Amino acid sequence: MAFSAASLGLDPATLLLGALIFLARVADVTMGTLRTISTVQGRAKTAFFLGLAEISIWLAVVSAVVNEVLQKPILGAFYVLGFSVGNAVGIAVEKRIALGHAVVRVISADKGRELADALRLNGFAVTTFMGQGQGGPVMELYIACRRRDVGPVLKVVNQVQPGAFFVTELAGGVSRVYRPTMQQSTGWRAVFKKK
Predict the structure, then answer these.
(1) 28 contacts 61 by C-beta, under 8 angstroms
(2) What is the pLDDT of residues 128-158, one digit of tens each?
(3) For domain 101-171, which architecture applies?
């Protein structure tokens, strides 16, 4: 039994449909990933609208694929690849927008005060605790911040004490977070900031 390009669904119209299925699948799975994370974080409105868009796209894609996949199996491959890529894209997008809050704990045997001062100077609120480590007394720095501020916090930590021991974790609920101080607005932005 010989296979031809047309029998496999490799004609231009099928490939275009496959590309559209792939892109739509990437979009809906990305939304599904973001929806799941929003649900876990308790963001009901965000999860609702993401779910609405996700299932609308999914329904359109499935209706296009189900009737055609037996005659054009390549569409199934586009569908599967879109799903896999959508998961990776969804995770990357979520990391980029970094919704929610985090806790950063830094433990230092000898530079705890310097670390706390440097972090405060950069606008981060820091609470310190004295503790006992294997090698003697240590200071733990506790920083509650937005997830997108974890990188800047760790940058300050590594400037003061390269290779410092730290732990990051997601915060389920935070009553208040002090954000790094912002530069004064200039130009047209300053006009809108005035009351």
Answers:
(1) yes
(2) 999 998 889 999 999 999 888 999 999 999 9
(3) 2-Layer Sandwich (3.30)
